[in-house]
Amino acid sequence: MPKAELLDPQGKAVAGALSRTGHESISGVRVGKRFELTVEGPIDDAVRAEVAALAEHVLSNSVIEDVVGIHYEQSNIELAGEAAEHHDGYDAPAGETH
User: Which residues form a coiled coil (predicted)?
Assistant: First the structure.
């Protein structure tokens, strides 16, 4: 997601459109980007660390974006060991690529 202190013209446009279409309860929108990575094999702590590092240092521009969350789905993969406890949650460096 764009950092909170930066203007988000896309978010502003979406918020305006929502307001014009009767969705007055929505007071703000931030527009970001999302990556979907497919991992071969089980998701263990090493894979989780690699994905977190990729999100923070390769897939996002830390000057203008924050990594908000990393979500693991168990569709075609098996989660391994301790990592299985966190598969439905939020595991990211502070700050969103979701």
Answer: none
Span 34-49, pLDDT tens digits: 888 988 888 999 999 9
User: pLDDT (tens digit, 9 = 90+) per residue, 61-81?
Assistant: 989 999 989 988 876 445 455
Place of tokens 């595991």: 91
Distances in Å between the alpha carbon of 14 and those of 2, 17, 24, 71, 96? 15, 5, 12, 25, 18
Residues in contact with 93: Cβ distance below 8 Å, sequence separation at least 6, in sequence order: 52, 55, 56, 67
Output b/e per residue, 59-74; b: 16+ Cβ within 10 A.
bbeeeebbbbebebee
